[in-house]
Design a protein that fits this description.
globular, mainly alpha, 18 helices, single chain
Length: about 525
């Protein structure tokens, strides 16, 4: 096993440099996309504009959504930022090109009824408004540092444009209710599964007297479960556009792979452990390579699935322009797929670091075991959801996993000494202040009963001070207890980040719908003038 992957090309990517430099790279990519389309599809200038918008959407997907897959690995220092960008770019693009599929459903998840769309022109305007609306909302979310669902962004854009074009009846509200339910289901399941795996690691490894020996016994089983989960996950989600497998078959293949993984990994872990100690940092090293593999596989599956959010509407418009009919299912030309794959990779490279840092370090502190638990949640929740027919968001699962790990840490461990010692010091200071005040008052008291009562109170406080000096125990007041709890919670979960992310989740569909509706109205006006 390796200590840490240090890919030295990290500095090749602009991390916090000149915003104009980043903008220039993005603009150059979009101009090249437009020029390529004009050359490759001569006589279709409108399509060149559409592909440029598709490229813009792909950039935003790379900037926002990919962080969920590699952020925990970066936050745990299993990967450098540059290394994560390289791995994610390779596997996102590979997933898109290898497993992105030949055909895409143009009416995303059946949320609007295509039979209520008047004609091909209206359909083109809906797709264009939805694509641009979803991209603009993703851009805004990335700018404020909020990871959101790209699928929900494009869904909202389609809803808004569809309503403006054809009225409220065009929306399948039952399907929308299921999507809304995923806002709650996804993060809760992600948080629960990630916390469960972390609890198992803490209980079966780190809470044992000989942690290294425990790790040698438990870790092969955990990695075997990981092998099972990720192969099943890829079979159900990452490769579904190449070969469609039912859940039973996917589980069977995953089980076989899990058994093989155990047999391969067990001797490797025993060999690697000979160079390690019982220290937690050493045990964490055993999770580094599994975590990197998990991040790569998540990126592959994400590229295979979410590239459709960028190039699906582009393919739909292209198909409709050629056939003149509404394209419920559109073929994906390879040149359009390449635009989506390159856009995601480039968006990740130039704008992804901001969200990677948010997911990896700004919500809660991560090490390799915690990050591994989050990656496991991302795969297993998809399997659970598929078996139950529940709609879930991979973004919400991953972020829910991060919060689940943070809250578990809060409930398992309570000492962040720097700030809490401040509360203790304040508590001791208040005792000494009271003793000084009572000593002064005692000199003025003549009533023996009052003197006796006050002497008893002084004795109790002095005994409390003695107890603190002897064993460090402090009996906090209710107010101080609440203050200590607030400090501990803040250390494990950054509340402001939580509020920002949840707010962004709740408004993603409404905001992208509003933007999509406004854009449809503007596009339809320009379309009418052009005609």
């Amino acid at each position: 096993m390796t200590n840490q992957i240090n890919i030295q090309s990290e500095n090749k990517f602009p991390r916090s440099g000149n915003d104009f430099y980043k903008l220039g790279i993005a603009m150059l990519f979009l101009i090249m996309v437009m020029l390529y389309t004009l050359i490759y599809q001569s006589g279709m200038p409108f399509l060149a504009f559409v592909t440029m918008i598709g490229g813009y959407m792909a950039l935003n997907i790379g900037a926002n959504d990919v962080a969920n897959n590699v952020g925990p690995a970066v936050g745990s220092k299993a990967l450098t930022l540059g290394g994560a960008i390289i791995i994610a770019a390779i596997f996102e693009a590979s997933g898109a090109l290898i497993a992105g599929g030949d055909v895409v459903s143009t009416i995303n998840k059946g949320i609007i009824d295509p039979n209520l769309i008047a004609d091909g022109n209206v359909f083109i305007m809906i797709m264009l408004a939805a694509l641009l609306g979803g991209a603009l909302w993703l851009n805004i979310a990335t700018a404020v540092g909020a990871p959101v669902s790209t699928t929900h962004s494009i869904v909202g854009g389609i809803i808004g444009a569809g309503i403006v074009s054809s009225g409220l009846d065009i929306v399948n509200w039952a399907t929308m209710a299921k999507i809304a339910a995923s806002w709650i289901i996804s993060p809760l399941l992600g948080g629960f599964v990630a916390a469960l795996f972390l609890y198992i690691i803490q209980d079966r490894i780190f809470h044992k007297e000989d942690t290294l020996e425990s790790a040698k016994k438990v870790l092969p089983f955990l990695i075997a479960i990981m092998g099972f989960a990720f192969i099943t996950y890829l079979a159900l989600k990452g490769l579904k556009k190449i070969v469609k497998l039912d859940l039973t078959t996917a589980l069977f293949i995953g089980t076989l792979f899990g058994i093989v993984t155990y047999l391969i990994v067990k001797p490797l872990i025993i060999k690697a452990s000979k160079r390690l100690s019982n220290e937690k940092t050493d045990i964490n090293k055993l999770f580094t390579m599994p975590l990197i593999f998990a991040a790569a596989l998540l990126c592959f599956a994400h590229g295979a699935n979410d590239v459709a959010n960028a190039i699906g509407p582009v393919s739909a418009i292209y198909d409709t322009l050629e056939s003149g009919e509404i394209a419920k299912n559109a073929a994906i030309p390879i040149w359009i797929m390449v635009i989506g794959a390159l856009g995601i990779a480039l968006g990740l490279a130039i704008y992804g670091p901001k969200l990677i840092k948010t997911v990896g370090s700004e919500i809660t502190d991560l090490d390799q075991t915690r990050a591994w638990a989050i990656a496991m949640a991302s795969a297993i929740v998809v399997i659970i959801a598929s078996s139950l027919g529940l709609p879930v968001s991979s973004t919400h699962i991953a972020i829910g996993g991060v919060f689940g790990v943070g809250y578990l840490r809060y409930y398992l461990y309570y000492k962040y000494q720097d700030e809490i010692e401040g509360v203790k010091a304040h508590h001791l200071k208040s005792i000494n202040k009271k003793l000084s005040k009572w000593d002064n008052r005692l000199a003025d008291l003549e009533d023996e009963n009052e003197r006796t009562l006050l002497l008893n109170r002084i004795a109790i406080k002095k005994q409390e001070l003695k107890t603190v000096k002897t064993n460090g125990e402090i009996k906090f007041t209710k107010k101080e207890t609440r203050k200590v709890a607030k400090i501990q919670r803040k250390q494990y979960i950054r509340g402001q980040v939580l509020v920002k992310i949840v707010t962004a989740w709740l408004v993603t569909v409404p905001m992208s719908a509003l933007i999509g509706g406004i854009l449809y109205y503007g596009i339809s006006l320009m379309w009418a003038i052009e005609l």
